[in-house]
Amino acid sequence: MDFKCLNDVECSHPEKILGPHLEDVYIIRAYIPIARAAFILIDNKKYQMIDNGKVFEYRSDNEINDYKILYIDDSGYEKTIDDPYRFRPEISDYDIYLYGTGRLFEAYKTFGAHLKTIKDVSGCNFVVWAPSALSVSVVGNFNHWTPGMHPMINVNDSGIWALFIPGIKENEVYKFAIKTKNNEIKMKTDPFAFYTEKRPRTGSIVINDDFHWTDNSFKRSENALSIYEMHLGSWKRNNGDYYNYREIADMLIDHLKKTGFNCVEIMPVMEHPLDISWGYQVVNYFAPTSRYGKPDDFKYLVNRLHENNIMVILDFVPAHFPDDDYGLYMFDGTHLYDYEDPRMGRTPDWGTNIFDFGRNGIRSFIASAAVFWIDKYHVDGLRFDAVTSMIYLDFGRKPGEWIPNINGGNINLEAVSLLKEINDYIHNKYYNVITVAEESSTYPGITSESGLNFNYKWNLGWMHDTLDFFHEDPLYRKYRINNLTFSVMYMYSENFILPVSHDEVVYGKGSLYRKMPGNKNEKISNVKLFLSYMFSYPGKKLLFMGNEFAQKNEWNVLSQLSWNDLDDGKYVMELIHDLNNLYKNDFNFYNDKNFSWIDFNDKTNTVISFNRGNAVCIFNFTPVERENYAIGVDYLSRYIEIINTDSKKYNGGNILNESIYACKYPMHGRRYSIEIDLPPLAAVIMEPEDLNGSSGN
């Protein structure tokens, strides 16, 4: 028999050569290139195996069902192993079929490294997809990282390779050695690795899934979704080092309770090589980064958040992946995971590779990566990054640099159908789990069931327009009021989240505090005014870490937030706490349909006002006090001030309106009116207290 394919690391069907076989006699073969001698152990007896160029053979007239192999390496070290090739790796024909049709949306249950017991023997079942490889073998400390020593089986010639290796235990480090058609051997991380070595090391690690969850009673709620966006590694540092997921848990819970957020959105925790990528250049889509601990540590963090009624959303990056040679790029020597044509497969602005959304194996991979975090880590939602770049074939490209779809248009039909399929699957399988699109175009139906079926879309237009308005000198804001009012024209076209995200406080854009004009006190007043406007406006809320205390410096991923320089920040946090409580507990505010203008055109005073249900919200965008400012109202009642950002409680000038009685003077198309004192650069929110039973209806 020709053993050349083994020695050349090109064997795609080692099961036909290795292990037990009935030929003219019973033969057991083992390929052990690091051995100088090998023996069969049968019933505690040792029998010499014949060395045929590192393929060791033992022949017997009798069938042998139970045996072990002992080999001796060049250093004299002896090791006893079970023969992998007397076991059939565990993968079903149906899973192979579903993966090939792009419909295996829980592929992580099959692919990757799974500890199992087969025929009363414990070990690990490895499965990987590499259809263009000449051979794939598992390498690790257990075989001295020797390519070809544990060749995998190309199951049914499907391009899906599998092997059960007895004796592999938890914490074993491994990679796949892939022989390409260019006769290169690439040492690749497992695309389905559930844990990896800490950077700069890149090995995959076998783990056991036995975490004990205690969050069964946790109930997800979307009525008032107030999201705290954070980057784990730069939120707080432990003398410059990262905190463990477990150490972060209670500190984060305390802060969220103090500020009133009921949901945390964590920037990508999927394993990535570069700190400065913020996690958006993912290599291992199924592994929480080892920067902050082990997978069970991250599960502990999610579990503790749930125990404290805090939802968890993860950033998910299904659009593109980086060039790292140990990762997905040219995985089997071909553009397996990305489009081969750079007009489709390369992002001009980011220098990353776009997934081939039309390839069925990739569809199974991306969908499974999304479902995995919901299933195995109990997360309550996923925020899909860079959805616009997935939808549009010409995203970031000039004419002639992109390929139209089959209809001649610029929509990536394959990406659109995949996003729809993932959302449909998640919403049908998991109760109340939400998906969010970071999408900046006017593509219709992002949050429609007949469209892409996301639950929410980031309202990036609102964010940019509102921040541009606040950046303006108050003297000229009256000319920019349309920046605030325009979004009302489309605010019900999708289900929106109002984001003030990490992208707006980095790369020279300045912190929220720095964006504001004026001196220190005016900047703080503007921040409080902005936050009150945001929490009063229809839409779910998202605020990036540091904004809740008006951090002065913009975000730096390489250091922690300025916790030692709170100064006025503690008053801003007090306001955030009160705004969150109002938003979460007052139907007027968490029901997004409760909105109507009172006056959106007072450019002379640069004041706008609107109703949220019964509540009256008034905003003075100038540093000038407006005394006896008249507002039309619907109720002949006493109006109670529930938020005033100028209050002493928030370190303001304390120009208050403790209670105001409406009069029968119609204004702004309403039957009654009130007069209030509007502090400079301040928000005032009032609600009616019906004293006499008259509502004006």
UniProtKB/TrEMBL annotation:
<keyword id="KW-0808">Transferase</keyword>
<feature type="domain" description="Glycosyl hydrolase family 13 catalytic">
    <location>
        <begin position="229"/>
        <end position="570"/>
    </location>
</feature>
<dbReference type="GO" id="GO:0005829">
    <property type="term" value="C:cytosol"/>
</dbReference>
<dbReference type="Pfam" id="PF02922">
    <property type="entry name" value="CBM_48"/>
</dbReference>
<comment type="pathway">
    <text>Glycan biosynthesis; glycogen biosynthesis.</text>
</comment>
<keyword id="KW-0320">Glycogen biosynthesis</keyword>
<feature type="active site" description="Nucleophile">
    <location>
        <position position="385"/>
    </location>
</feature>
<dbReference type="Pfam" id="PF02806">
    <property type="entry name" value="Alpha-amylase_C"/>
</dbReference>
<comment type="function">
    <text>Catalyzes the formation of the alpha-1,6-glucosidic linkages in glycogen by scission of a 1,4-alpha-linked oligosaccharide from growing alpha-1,4-glucan chains and the subsequent attachment of the oligosaccharide to the alpha-1,6 position.</text>
</comment>
<protein>
    <recommendedName>
        <fullName>1,4-alpha-glucan branching enzyme GlgB</fullName>
        <ecNumber>2.4.1.18</ecNumber>
    </recommendedName>
</protein>
<dbReference type="InterPro" id="IPR006407">
    <property type="entry name" value="GlgB"/>
</dbReference>
<keyword id="KW-0119">Carbohydrate metabolism</keyword>
<dbReference type="InterPro" id="IPR054169">
    <property type="entry name" value="GlgB_N"/>
</dbReference>
<comment type="similarity">
    <text>Belongs to the glycosyl hydrolase 13 family. GlgB subfamily.</text>
</comment>
<dbReference type="InterPro" id="IPR013783">
    <property type="entry name" value="Ig-like_fold"/>
</dbReference>
<dbReference type="InterPro" id="IPR006047">
    <property type="entry name" value="GH13_cat_dom"/>
</dbReference>
<dbReference type="InterPro" id="IPR017853">
    <property type="entry name" value="GH"/>
</dbReference>
<keyword id="KW-0321">Glycogen metabolism</keyword>
<comment type="subunit">
    <text>Monomer.</text>
</comment>
<feature type="active site" description="Proton donor">
    <location>
        <position position="438"/>
    </location>
</feature>
<dbReference type="Pfam" id="PF00128">
    <property type="entry name" value="Alpha-amylase"/>
</dbReference>
<dbReference type="InterPro" id="IPR004193">
    <property type="entry name" value="Glyco_hydro_13_N"/>
</dbReference>
<dbReference type="GO" id="GO:0005978">
    <property type="term" value="P:glycogen biosynthetic process"/>
</dbReference>
<dbReference type="InterPro" id="IPR014756">
    <property type="entry name" value="Ig_E-set"/>
</dbReference>
<dbReference type="Pfam" id="PF22019">
    <property type="entry name" value="GlgB_N"/>
</dbReference>
<dbReference type="InterPro" id="IPR037439">
    <property type="entry name" value="Branching_enzy"/>
</dbReference>
<dbReference type="GO" id="GO:0043169">
    <property type="term" value="F:cation binding"/>
</dbReference>
<dbReference type="InterPro" id="IPR044143">
    <property type="entry name" value="GlgB_N_E_set_prok"/>
</dbReference>
<dbReference type="InterPro" id="IPR013780">
    <property type="entry name" value="Glyco_hydro_b"/>
</dbReference>
<keyword id="KW-0328">Glycosyltransferase</keyword>
<dbReference type="GO" id="GO:0004553">
    <property type="term" value="F:hydrolase activity, hydrolyzing O-glycosyl compounds"/>
</dbReference>
<dbReference type="InterPro" id="IPR006048">
    <property type="entry name" value="A-amylase/branching_C"/>
</dbReference>
<dbReference type="GO" id="GO:0003844">
    <property type="term" value="F:1,4-alpha-glucan branching enzyme activity"/>
</dbReference>
